[in-house]
Design a protein that fits this description.
The protein is 82% helix and 0% strand.
Length: 241
């Protein structure tokens, strides 16, 4: 029951993040700057430490999660490079802006959201204290996940109806993951490999898509400040939440 309630809280946090992004389309440039900082902070202060901690506890060579990280980075690069973005009916899209990229981002985050809920349930199988700590960390960054997904899909010109559908999937995935954790436990080694892949995936998004767009047009001190603020926010959430 506790796991179910906490995964619902994580889902509500993602929903609030997505709603905030939808209501603020006029400031898309500034939202992209903030999102890029949040993503960088998530990778540096949350995903990488978690990967190395799992690798150390499981006796896993850290090179394998790093191989997965490089694979995630390169796979998205290849996906973006070779996906048919320049068909005659799609000339309104630039090489780095396309609804298919927005959907790809939503699919990736849906998987991450599922594992967020799963991790809460697995942590409670260890102890209530560990489960509560993991739940606080997950809920803390779920708002950023919902905000990030919605912002990236807006940036790639996805229709609002599609955005709401994918946001609903992202919102529900932690609950599904939490319920599944009651059936069996995910291998921590497999989790470390996945986290590495996911880190590379979203690192590419931040470095190649969000950050350049946020600062290429009408760049301002506000945009730069929001990028830094996003990184600092994720540091605070992961260190002190």
């Amino acid at each position: 029951m506790v796991v179910f309630l906490l995964t619902i809280a994580a889902s509500v946090a993602a929903l609030l993040g997505g709603y905030t992004a939808i209501r603020s389309q006029r400031w898309l440039n500034l939202m992209l700057a903030l999102t890029s900082g949040l993503v960088l902070g998530l990778v540096i202060f949350d995903l990488l430490p978690e990967i190395f901690e799992i690798a150390q506890s499981q006796g896993l060579d850290p090179v394998w999660p790093m191989v997965a990280m490089a694979s995630g980075f390169l796979l998205f690069h290849l996906f973006e490079k070779f996906i048919p973005l320049h068909e005659a009916s799609e000339q309104q899209y630039s090489p780095h802006r396309h609804p298919k990229l927005g959907v790809a981002r939503a699919v990736a985050l849906s998987g991450h959201s599922f594992l967020d809920g799963l991790s809460i349930g697995v942590a409670f199988q260890v102890s209530a204290a560990v489960g509560t700590a993991v739940a606080i960390a997950v809920i803390g960054h779920r708002f950023a996940d919902g905000f990030d997904t919605t912002t990236f899909m807006l940036f790639n010109q996805n229709k609002l109806t599609h955005i709401k559908k994918w946001l609903a999937v992202v919102v529900l995935m932690p609950i599904a993951g939490g319920l599944l954790s009651l059936a069996f436990v995910l291998s921590e080694t497999a989790l470390a490999i996945y986290l590495g892949f996911f880190a590379g995936f979203i690192l590419y998004i931040s470095a190649s898509n969000l950050l350049p767009e946020a600062h290429s047009k009408h760049s301002s001190y506000k945009a730069t400040g929001l990028t830094i603020l996003g990184v600092i926010f994720m540091f605070i959430v992961t260190r002190f939440a």
